[in-house]
Amino acid sequence: MYAIIKNGGxxxxxxxxxxxxxxxxxxxxxxxxxxxxxxxxxxxxxxxxTPFVEGAKVELxxxxxxxxxKVIIYKKRRRKDSKLKKGFRRQFTRVKVLxxx
Length: 101
What we know:
By secondary structure, the protein is mostly beta strands. The chain has one domain (2-65, 94-100). It has strands at 2-7, 10-15, 19-23, 32-35, 38-42, 46-48, 58-67, 71-77, 82-88, 91-100. A hairpin with a 2-residue loop joins strand 1 (2-7) and strand 2 (10-15).
């Protein structure tokens, strides 16, 4: 059984026991989170929501918080002597999928 959930403008395909890096969530480790924004669920037959499936839930447990690898943004305009270099590290929350209902 799997589900497709929405979080932070992105969609994730999840199954029980999966680990995910979601956008930063204000919750401490060992907290339980219930996601009700389920776009589709497959438990033998596929149910697609409009936009969400009614009554479908995904339970998550917060494992830890962290930062991703640094992404370098480099812009250069040729012949203009114009350069821009920036770095960015996305903060995330590591979660484990407990159940798909």
